[in-house]
Structures are given as C-alpha cells and as structure tokens.
C-alpha cells in the first residue's frame, strides 16, 4: 500500500472516530482528535466565535461545539451549543442542538426505524418531524463549522478512487445527503477536491488542500493542512470568512 493510501486509511479511522479504538484499551476514556476555536468574520469584521472539541471513544466519536455571537448591545447576545455523536461506521447516533440566548429551544435528531426523527422543543411545545433519510446522512447545521472538518474527513475516506497503476488514488466529486436541523429541512451537497493552494495564513505562507462544497445556496471553499485540520472557510457570496485561531 502506498503512503497516500495509508493516509486515506488513517483518515477513515478518524472519520469514524477511530471508531474501533485500540483493541487493548478496555476503558471508555476519550482521545482528543482535535480542539480549538474558529473566528467568524463578516465583511472583515469579527462577529462570532465557535469553540469545539472532537473526541474519540472506543465505540463512537463526539464533536461538541459552542457558538457565541455578541452584538452591540447585551440584548443582542446569541449563544448556541451542539453535540454530534457518530457510530463506528460513520452513521448518526444522536445530534443535540440548543439555543441558550436570546431564546431557549432545543432539537434532537436520532435514528428511528432506519430513518431520522427530529424532536423540537420551543415555546413550551414539543413537535416531532420524520425525515426520509438514513442514519448515513450528515448533519450540516448552521454556525457549527467544526463538523465541516469531520465531513471532509469522511469525504477523503470515501471518495478515493485507486489509480490503475496502484499509485495512490484520485478524489472524485461526491454527493452527500444532509440534514439541517436548525432550519428543519434536508438537502444534498457535493464535495470536490480543487488541488493545492499556497495560502498566506498567520503571517506566513501555507500549502493547503482546497475543497469546494456546493449547496443549494452559496458555495463554500475550505482549506485543510497536512495534518488534516481545517484552517479556513470562505463563503464569498455572503462575505463570510471562518479562520482557525492560532494557539
């Protein structure tokens, strides 16, 4: 197996949260796969921050996020949390979303009879909404950009078409069904590898892999480094830039 295929194989393990873990590890202790913060900028002005942790357990992975936006007045405070739990095959185990400010509401998505069921609690009322999506569908909720990193890992692991000569593989454009719980809707996206870019970041040049996500709305451009960490997202149509904060 070539070095490149070994990298893809390791990404598959990450995508499913290592998903089997070490056979010698009997404990349920988590390994932190990635953690950090993204600054969200609108037309050059910082408007919000997402703090996140991606943890690997022997039998599942959990991506936890906190999103904070602060307006010019305290009454404009905007705060949400999310937790995405995936099983060893990359399918959804559970997704929880909560809005803490300015109002209180929550959404839970879980598999039910091989489809997805969403429970919404808002204004003191609980409603249930089914979606004819299998648990393989990806949660692509608003404001939580760390899950885009997990989605890219899945793409890298699943979209690899081996070259005939056995020298690595070609990444092909791939479709993914998605669910956007905050909007209570489903859709589909396409991910494509666009090559390598020499991108200045943190005041120094960076050679990053560039990916394109096409949605029903604006296009997303994403860049990851050699360690498969998401460093930058650009949504040109909305003037939005998401940058990983340097430690």
Please tally the β strands and state the result: 17
- Oligomeric status: single chain
Query: Could you give the order of the helices and strands?
Result: HEEEEEEEEEHEEEEEEEE
The secondary structure category is: mainly beta
Question: What form results from the Cα inertia axes?
Answer: globular
Largest sheet: 15 strands, mixed
Unreliable residue stretches: 1-27
Q: Strand sequence of the main sheet, in spatial order?
A: 8-7-6-5-4-3-2-1-17-16-15-14-13-12-9
Number of individual domains: 1
Mean pLDDT: 87
Percentage of β-strand residues: over 45%
Helix content: 10-25%
Q: Termini separation (Å)?
A: 35 Å
Determine Rg (CA atoms, Å). Answer: 18 Å
Helix count from the secondary structure assignment: 2
Short description:
This protein is mostly beta strands. 11% of the residues lie in helices and 54% in strands.
Fold blueprint:
Elements: H1 3-15, E1 31-42, E2 45-56, E3 61-69, E4 78-86, E5 92-101, E6 105-112, E7 115-122, E8 125-131, E9 138-139, H2 146-158, E10 160-162, E11 169-171, E12 174-180, E13 185-201, E14 204-214, E15 220-224, E16 230-235, E17 240-244
Parallel strand pairs: 9-12
Antiparallel strand pairs: 1-2, 1-17, 2-3, 3-4, 4-5, 5-6, 6-7, 7-8, 10-11, 12-13, 13-14, 14-15, 15-16, 16-17
Helix pairs in contact: 1-2
Description:
- By secondary structure, the chain is mainly β.
- It has one domain (3-244).
- The protein is built from two helices and 17 strands.
- The chain has helices at residues 3-15, 146-158; strands at 31-42, 45-56, 61-69, 78-86, 92-101, 105-112, 115-122, 125-131, 138-139, 160-162, 169-171, 174-180, 185-201, 204-214, 220-224, 230-235, 240-244.
- The strands form two sheets. Strands 8-7-6-5-4-3-2-1-17-16-15-14-13-12-9 form a 15-stranded mixed beta sheet, covered by helices on one side. The protein has a two-stranded antiparallel ribbon with strand order 10-11.
- Strand 7 and strand 8 form a beta hairpin.
- Helix 1 (3-15) crosses helix 2.
- It is globular and about 55 Å long.
